[in-house]
Write a structure and sequence with these properties.
It is built from three helices and no strands. By secondary structure, it is mainly alpha-helical. The two termini are 25 Å apart. The mean pLDDT is 88.
């Protein structure tokens, strides 16, 4: 993900990349999504279907 983040930044995209060892990392996917929504004052996000079943299960109850 770090390399993909750098590629996106070089292509001109704004990227909010949180390192695993960041002292403010909530240590959960949902926690980081919640923090990002608050930090950027946005109404929602668009996601693609994850390749990992664990993430798919975690995202299914999210409102659409």
């Amino acid at each position: 993900m770090r390399h993909f983040s750098m590629e996106l930044q070089q292509a001109g995209f704004h990227v909010d990349y949180i390192k695993l060892d960041d002292e403010n990392n909530s240590a959960s996917f949902r926690g980081e999504i919640t923090r990002a929504l608050s930090r950027h004052r946005i109404d929602g996000i668009i996601v693609t279907r994850p390749s990992e079943f664990r993430l798919l299960e975690a995202m299914q109850p999210w409102p659409s």
